[in-house]
Amino acid sequence: METKHHIDLTSAEMANLWTAYINDTMVICVLKYALATVQDTEIRAVLEFALQLSQSHVQQLTAMFNEEQLPIPDGFNENEDLNLQAPPLFTDTYYLTYIHNMGKIGIESYGMALANSSRTDQSQYFTNCLTEYTQLFNQALQVLLSKGNHTRSPHIPKPKQVQYVQKQSYLTGWFGKRRPLNAIEIGNIYFSMIRNMLGEALVTGFSQVAKSQEVRNFMVRGRDISAKHIEIFGSVLSEDHLPPASKWDAEATDSTVAPFSDKLMMFHVTALVSIGISHYGASLGTSARRDLGALYSRLMAEIVQYAEDGANIMIDNGWLEQPPQAPDRDQLANKND
């Protein structure tokens, strides 16, 4: 009779599950609050589908942690991190755009988790998550399109023939005449603007409701960084007479009642900043003009520092949950000294 051997999770698989659990418990709190305030029925349907996905994920992830005899992360919960009595902090349109962006992030993160999975059950779980978030993305996109709220990147003329780069001047950008942006660079810049606009509205709302002055100051600083990055990206597009994305000036209401704990808001913002860093890095790697590479490097350094300052605030307040980590072999070797 053949004996089945249990294969332990790899460190990558452990990281996938831990990260997914923390994120899904946070998203559940955000979506429950959104559903308590949203008025539009079509947007409500999208939010309900997103909540259903996250709740199902948490159930499955909890079962996996128990099966692997791993401690279940604290994450976030309705009793400590959510105030359903708070008035609306964001508009219905913002929540729809938020979910659309959440779909994008989910597709990216679940795709990476799938690529890093070795066990069949893990690859199947993240394959399912990837399929679900593709559905969520498309559902949110269709509602955005039907309401005329979807923001498209700029149009450029279709090329008439295949072309090859002839001179090294294609790469220049610091001195002399710069060539026009190519389609890849336009897309990178435009969607960097969109992500910063989403972030700017989010931290604007959070800055109004955070209980701690330190957290409020952190959110105001994030708002100002996002506004600056939006202006910089817009000026790069304008240089080639390309339209920048329209700003969302009123997506945060004037509420000053906190729907979430300071812990949740800090985690949410620092997590989005970490994703922003990876997007800037990808944009840097696919931008041929040297001035754009320098620009992304400079902006990335600024938000890396912002993320570190956010992590320090979370550590000081006991809010930063630690992921599984390798043992300290030197400490173990000296344990009996």
Number of helices: 10
Cα Rg: 22 Å
What is the strand tally?
0
Report, as a whole number of angstroms, the end-to-end distance: 48 Å
User: Helicity level, as a percent range?
Assistant: 55-70%
Topology-level CATH name of the largest domain? Ferritin
Task: Report the order of strands and helices.
Answer: HHHHHHHHHH
CATH superfamily of the largest domain: Ferritin, core subunit, four-helix bundle
What is the residue-mean pLDDT, rounded to a whole number? 93
Total individual domains: 2
Task: Name the beta content range.
Answer: under 5%
Structural class: mainly alpha
CATH architect. name of the largest domain: Up-down Bundle
Quaternary structure classification: single chain
By CATH reckoning, the class of the largest domain would read Mainly Alpha
Poorly predicted runs of 5 or more residues: none
Overall shape: globular
Biggest β-sheet: count, sense, barrel?
none
Organism: Priestia megaterium (Bacillus megaterium)
Pfam families: DUF3231
Protein name: DUF3231 family protein
